[in-house]
Design brief:
mainly alpha, Tetratricopeptide-like helical domain superfamily
Length: about 425
């Protein structure tokens, strides 16, 4: 399975879409610092370009919002006016009401003067979302590349702090522009970086009345556009472009599968995987095995798992199949062997603790999770499971949870595991 730390490849995979009501532009309270509100009137800053100059084009850590890739352009870019994306009424304040005080008062809290790139690199995604918005509102309306880059960072950071509802609301104007095909919209759409277009499709499915059907249709529309670009690249004999667009086409195929799974259409997702060509065989077998296991097809899971060349993934399915058969003791043995063989793979220790829990060894499961929490940066699944253990094992669960909050807030900030700050609900507070 993918690491529980973060979804692989993009923010859309296995992400938790926490449901929050999206407030209208609320009046700020008397205790809110004016400097923390990116929507507050501020003088034009000469440092916008400085805030952007250090941002890397791509991050290796999948939890960190990557900057959009440059748009492939074969002709001069049109000069467009994007002031419709700079309307303050479109955006919402991101409050700290759901952030424990241990984070608010931590010595690791970033300085006020931190640049956007420093905030992203440090995993301070809430503050990065605010900084990106401030810079976006102060950008020249015709600075398309800068505005889209900042908007992508803003939306990605909102998703990473479990506020995809706000991100979806703020993306509505651009989503509408890309889907309506209004006159003149093509000139704007062709300037939108690919990563931002993918994120817009993802946000389009959040809270949709059709349960994401339009999102799947949008992925197919993107695939048609990609195929057209592949034909153009082949005509121009541009091998680099052909390779790039082919990679994007393969990625879209996997995203369609993910979207079908989110809709609960598991059999359709399995059939869709059968139609994919030129996709890594091991990745395809892995996904098929996961889907077969999800629908309860144990024999089909075993057949797909046997095709895996990756030893760690194959042994992972051996343990999962033992769990599916109710043989948790056997699963614990396999998980512990995997922990020894592949140190640094937190999901093995996490799954071992869950299997120990189901065998009645709750104290041992708690000890394993506490040890894991001390060794690695906190991540949502670990925090939730450990908080559950506290609720089951002691009447001092609130004290234990608060101690866990203090421990997590004292760790060195970083972009892994969805960021440094964690909301109160992740600790079941």
């Amino acid at each position: 399975m993918d690491s529980p730390i973060s979804p692989s490849g993009s923010v859309r995979r296995h992400a938790r879409n926490i449901s929050h009501p999206v407030p209208q532009r609320a009046a700020r309270g008397p205790l809110e610092a004016a400097t923390d509100d990116p929507l507050a009137d501020a003088p034009a800053s000469p440092a916008i370009s400085d805030a952007l100059s250090d941002i890397p084009a791509e991050e290796k850590t999948s939890s960190t919002p990557r900057l959009p890739e440059p748009v492939l352009a074969h002709r001069p870019r049109p000069n467009v006016d994007l002031r419709f994306l700079q309307d303050r009424q479109l955006f919402h304040s991101v409050t700290t009401e759901d952030i424990p005080n241990a984070y608010i008062n931590s010595q690791h809290r970033p300085p006020v003067e931190s640049s956007l790139s420093e905030l992203v690199q440090g995993g301070h995604f809430r503050r990065a979302a605010e900084a990106a918005l401030r810079a976006l509102l102060q950008s020249p309306p015709t600075a398309a590349e800068q505005i889209f880059q900042l908007l992508y960072t803003r939306l990605a950071c909102l998703v990473l702090i479990s506020r995809p509802d706000i991100a979806a609301a703020e993306a509505i104007p651009l989503i509408g522009l890309t889907s309506r095909g209004a006159p003149g919209s093509h000139e704007v759409v062709e300037l939108i970086p690919w990563d931002l277009r993918i994120l817009l499709v993802r946000l389009q499915s959040i809270g949709a009345a059709d349960s994401g059907r339009r999102g799947i249709m949008a992925l197919y529309a993107l695939a048609s556009e990609v195929r057209a670009n592949i034909r153009l690249a082949r005509r121009d004999e541009d091998a680099a472009d052909v390779e790039l667009w082919n990679a994007r086409l393969h990625d879209l195929g996997l995203r369609v599968c993910d979207a079908l799974v989110e809709r609960g259409e598991l059999e359709t997702a399995t059939k869709h995987l059968e139609t994919l060509t030129d996709v890594d065989a091991d990745e395809l077998a892995y996904r098929k095995a996961l889907l077969r296991l999800r629908v309860g097809d144990i024999a089909g899971t075993r057949q797909c798992a046997k095709q895996l060349q990756d030893d760690a993934r194959r042994k992972t399915f051996e343990a999962l199949l033992e769990v599916a058969d109710g043989k948790h003791e056997n699963a614990v043995t396999i998980w512990k062997a995997l922990i020894e063989e592949y140190p640094g793979h937190e999901q093995f220790a996490l799954n071992a603790a869950v299997s120990l829990f189901y065998t009645g060894h709750i104290a041992a499961a708690g000890d394993m999770l506490e040890s894991l929490a001390q060794e690695v940066p906190a991540f949502p699944t670990l925090l939730f499971n450990l908080s559950t253990i506290y609720e089951l094992c002691t009447e001092r669960a609130p004290e234990k949870k608060l101690a866990l909050v203090q421990q997590a807030a004292s760790r060195q900030p970083g972009p892994a595991t969805g960021g440094w700050e964690h909301a109160t609900f992740e600790f079941k507070l």
